[in-house]
Amino acid sequence: MKALHLRFSLPLIVTALLAAGPALAQDNWLTTWMASPQPTWGNELPLPTRIPEALSDSTIHQKLRVSVGGSQVRVVVSNEYGKQPLLIGAARVAAVEEGESVRAGSGQILRFGGEEQVSIAPGETRTSDPVALAVPALGDLLVSLYLPQRTPLTTFHWDGKQTAFISPGNQVNAQRLEGKEQVEARLFLSDILVDAPLDSRALVVLGDSITDGNGSTLDSNRRWPDFLAQRLASENVAVLNGGISGARLLEDGMGASALARFERDVLSKPGVKSVVLMLGINDISWPGTAFAPNAPLPSLERLIAGYRQLIDQARRHNIRIIGTTLLPFEGALQGSIIEHYHSAPKEQLRQALNQWIRTSQAFDAVIDFDQLTRDPQRPSRLLPLVDSGDHLHPGDEGNRAMAEGVELEVLF
User: Fold this and answer.
1) Where does the record place the SGNH hydrolase-type esterase domain (predicted)?
2) End residue of a domain, out of 127, 158, 191
């Protein structure tokens, strides 16, 4: 009886595998866009969140630009910092044409496990089912999320550099990017995946506000990772912006430390093969300011130990890790509510850390952004053509210069 069973079942199994093989081979899910989730804050930080405390019976419309394109799309929604379940009553993704209009016929209702409504537990994320939506490289998408009940906005990305619109009621089928309220943050939206060409791969830039785009023009995709994505689009390389304004290497700040979020923002992302690490300036600059008034300067040894932990994690996961030197910041934020951001001891620590980054050979490669952006007449300051005006963040042309200064062959 056993032999008879095998004679009939094996051909069926082989036939099924052969039939499934091409379909399975076509699935190459790649992270093509990300916005690192952050917890909202109260008065413990000197900068306001600039978002409502909660929304009710409202739709959030969020536009974004992908890196690598694909034939199918999945959307990741995060309730990482929520204190209650996040109820999504309806959701849609659509392609955006020139201007702010949805491409006719491109809107696709998002389902989660086959259901149009999903409840996401506190601390969890949920990935939508795939939808057939062809999106080109550097194409724009619109994600709309309907919140039917009162929902505290506890999980967000503060400095999104893209206007999000909030409409009353269920407006997921809206054909234009508009709404009654506007915010410059990402709300609950954390990742976009595409079914990409088989030779595609992703690169994460793990950074702070300089990577996040502070100083660049709103709604213009002029962060330095955006310009780098343009250079790499023809190579099927997704550049993922893992910047968090106020992020630090060693300690939590306006978001989790690099040590705490490396797994979430780098190691767990489908398709990631390399990471560029551009962190440390807030570890150096925050002590003695309104951000950390009583904190001492970290030691050089402690900063190096933090870098080495991330280097070790990357290599254990066969991910290439590239270090960058820290940009000059003399005069940073003068005249703002943030005082004492720069000092001689902080400058000495920056210089010492940059020297270690350049010479230690601890990283697989190094990008010398300090040399690229500093004023030759005063190396502790940004070159005026690079500076956005606050002496800390590059402007649009500075971001372009940084991206164009990257030697692409060092990235993979």
Assistant:
1) 205-401
2) 191
